[in-house]
Amino acid sequence: MVNGAPPRRQRLLTLVVLIAISAAGLAGCSADGSPGLDPDAATPEEVLANAKTIFDETSGVQVSLSTTAVPSGVTGIKAATGVGVHPAAFEGTFDLSVNGLPASAEVIAVDGVTYAKNSLLLPDWTEIDPADYGAPDPAQLMSPDTGFSGLIGAIVDLQRGGSIRGGDSNEEILTQYTGTVPASAVESLIPTARGGFDVALTISDVGELRSADLTGVFYKGAGRITYILTIDDYGTEQEIIAP
Question: Which of 195, 241, 242 is nearest to 218 (CA)?
Answer without folding.
Answer: 195
